[in-house]
Amino acid sequence: MGDVFIRHIELLGYEKRFFPSQHYVYMFLVKWNDLSEKVVYRRFTEIYEFHKALKEMFPIESGDINVENRIIPHLPAPKWFDGQRSTQNRQGTLTEYCYTLVNLPHKISRCLHVVNFFKVRHDDMNPVTDSQTKKPEVFLLPKDAKKNPTDITGPIVLQTYRAIADYEKSSTSEMALKAGDMVDVVEKSESGWWFCQVKNKRGWVPAAYLEPMDGPDESEEQEPNYAGEQYIVQKSYTAMEEDELTLKEGDTIEVIHKLLDGWWVIRKDETTGYYPSMYLQKAGEANTSVKSELRNRIAPPRRSTIRNAKSIHKQSRKLISQETYRRNSKKYIQSQRNMKENLQNKAKVLIEKNEQEENKPKAQPAVPPRPSKDLILNRCTESTRRKIL
């Protein structure tokens, strides 16, 4: 079987194609043991034929001999006519099928039949198209599709971005760009690496090299949150620029601004600066193998480090200066301290007031005056009157 095997298969969605005739293909993101990631396209009829052959290769595990021994997942047969509705409804089943397939014993999940079926083909990199027909329609699977795959409605139009400068790829999973290239963004990762596609190529691209066609991308960035979110540093990094921070693994920091290029503004004590988001993990969040493998990659380049960047927009990209981050962050910290001190002072005053009330001597009740002889004779009983006579 060799050393090549698949770590993970993720269903991204499906495409509706119109050449040579209308048909549907599923999009799979296949992650290999060498950390490369490839997108492949397969018709459901192909997947079902692959499934039947797999069952023949492993009759015991497919339940042909004893149903109780079956571990290979079920897969419904294709319909006589597969339309868009059946293609869409089948996505939940395929998601579960791929998850179970990869987690089967190695003799099945890493056999040549599985490896070869999901290897990149020529048609995956260069799909057959006709310039006279319309562009394929892409239907992406939502993030929470495992819970409710029927939420998919479409077509989902991918955002088109433009490259602002040349980019040379540094690994096979990346995609090279030339200034002015138009790409469709399939997935935006918080790490600053975006999965993009054009007609004949697909791969990961640094978000810093891309700008949307309809306006500068600062509108997609949320406002800074000076209250901060607590994160733990999972990988050390030495600052390369003056506005970056040098941190060690295990340090606790606060994220105050999450930027799309994968460089977040963080706060350590009263110091602020940029740090690669792919090396951070939210406090209390469980670590995953995918995140661990991601951290083995290099951090994406920052927008400020790109030379010869040319934007098509008249409005320049709004940037918040590091001085503004520092000043507002210190202002927030000081306001929190003042608020804390005020609460402590109020609590102290209240305690002191309560202590004073407790230590204050209590007033003694007044002794009533002795009644007169006439009053006793007029109002008291016979026995009481006898005592004063």
From TrEMBL:
<keyword id="KW-0963">Cytoplasm</keyword>
<dbReference type="InterPro" id="IPR036028">
    <property type="entry name" value="SH3-like_dom_sf"/>
</dbReference>
<dbReference type="InterPro" id="IPR001683">
    <property type="entry name" value="PX_dom"/>
</dbReference>
<feature type="region of interest" description="Disordered">
    <location>
        <begin position="350"/>
        <end position="375"/>
    </location>
</feature>
<feature type="domain" description="SH3">
    <location>
        <begin position="156"/>
        <end position="215"/>
    </location>
</feature>
<keyword id="KW-0597">Phosphoprotein</keyword>
<dbReference type="InterPro" id="IPR035757">
    <property type="entry name" value="NCF1_SH3_2"/>
</dbReference>
<dbReference type="Pfam" id="PF00787">
    <property type="entry name" value="PX"/>
</dbReference>
<dbReference type="GO" id="GO:0042554">
    <property type="term" value="P:superoxide anion generation"/>
</dbReference>
<dbReference type="Pfam" id="PF00018">
    <property type="entry name" value="SH3_1"/>
</dbReference>
<feature type="domain" description="SH3">
    <location>
        <begin position="226"/>
        <end position="285"/>
    </location>
</feature>
<dbReference type="GO" id="GO:0035091">
    <property type="term" value="F:phosphatidylinositol binding"/>
</dbReference>
<dbReference type="GO" id="GO:0045730">
    <property type="term" value="P:respiratory burst"/>
</dbReference>
<feature type="domain" description="PX">
    <location>
        <begin position="4"/>
        <end position="125"/>
    </location>
</feature>
<dbReference type="Pfam" id="PF16621">
    <property type="entry name" value="NCF1_PBR_AIR"/>
</dbReference>
<dbReference type="GO" id="GO:0016176">
    <property type="term" value="F:superoxide-generating NADPH oxidase activator activity"/>
</dbReference>
<dbReference type="GO" id="GO:0005737">
    <property type="term" value="C:cytoplasm"/>
</dbReference>
<dbReference type="InterPro" id="IPR032136">
    <property type="entry name" value="NCF1_PBR/AIR"/>
</dbReference>
<dbReference type="InterPro" id="IPR015039">
    <property type="entry name" value="NCF1_C"/>
</dbReference>
<protein>
    <submittedName>
        <fullName>NCF1 factor</fullName>
    </submittedName>
</protein>
<dbReference type="InterPro" id="IPR051228">
    <property type="entry name" value="NADPH_Oxidase/PX-Domain"/>
</dbReference>
<dbReference type="InterPro" id="IPR035756">
    <property type="entry name" value="NCF1_SH3_1"/>
</dbReference>
<dbReference type="InterPro" id="IPR034909">
    <property type="entry name" value="PX_p47phox"/>
</dbReference>
<keyword id="KW-0728">SH3 domain</keyword>
<dbReference type="InterPro" id="IPR001452">
    <property type="entry name" value="SH3_domain"/>
</dbReference>
<dbReference type="Pfam" id="PF08944">
    <property type="entry name" value="p47_phox_C"/>
</dbReference>
<keyword id="KW-0677">Repeat</keyword>
<dbReference type="InterPro" id="IPR036871">
    <property type="entry name" value="PX_dom_sf"/>
</dbReference>
<dbReference type="GO" id="GO:0043020">
    <property type="term" value="C:NADPH oxidase complex"/>
</dbReference>
<dbReference type="InterPro" id="IPR001655">
    <property type="entry name" value="P47PHOX"/>
</dbReference>
<feature type="compositionally biased region" description="Basic and acidic residues">
    <location>
        <begin position="350"/>
        <end position="361"/>
    </location>
</feature>
